[in-house]
Amino acid sequence: MNNKENLFIIRTYTKAELAHLYNPTVCIKVALQILRRWILFNLPLLHELEAEGYRARNRLLSPKQVATIVQYLGEP
Asked: Where are the domains of the chain?
């Protein structure tokens, strides 16, 4: 398998897109619920995201927010 296919790129993602990358075996709705729980229960992650302008209702995640999530949760 080509390693370039597995590279995760830090860029703007929709929350649903990123959630599905972390949980590809479940439907989008469930993947979003899982990602939301991971963020809510990881208080340092939540506080850092909020400092970067994150709000629970946002549909888009900035590259900086995505990088922060990856820093705490690892690459999808």
From this structure: 14-73
